[in-house]
Amino acid sequence: MRGLYFEEFEVGRVYKHPFTRTVTEMDNVMFTSLTMNLQPLHLDEEFAKNTVHGRRVFNSLFTLALIGAFHVPELTMGTTLGNLGYDEVKFPHPVFHGDTLRAETTILDKRESRSRTDSGIVWFEHRGYNQDDVLVCMCRRVGLMLKKPVDADNSEGEA
């Protein structure tokens, strides 16, 4: 399985990724602890009961990482050279333990690299939704993507 080469990305195309993931208390506590985020909103149920949410809120950086990963098998597996940056990140609705998340990606734009002949630049918008189809995360990012190798046409169908 491989992702798409630069030439295969179509501006405006929307990909509804087939994967879903139910996020758990363990995910939240482990990620929050591993990243040394001491925010009681993520770790302390008694503290969180007295917030506007009434319970612990999932660590938003875990949400961003998960939503940003749903596209990998379909779009960038083995064909990306890396992220160039995030232009915008929003969390319009909190994520809670037990929510099931899914993602969609829109190809916003693309252009050839000005400094590399083997790659191009693609602008992505990733959107994450919970089980009720409520938008929980949106990010726009820029990635450096490999161009199709010259010999790829000859080798893809070979066994």
UniProtKB/TrEMBL annotation:
SUPFAM superfamilies referenced in this protein's UniProt entry, alphabetically: Thioesterase/thiol ester dehydrase-isomerase
CDD domains assigned: FkbR2
Family listed: Belongs to the enoyl-CoA hydratase/isomerase family.
Protein name: MaoC family dehydratase
Species of origin: Thermobifida halotolerans
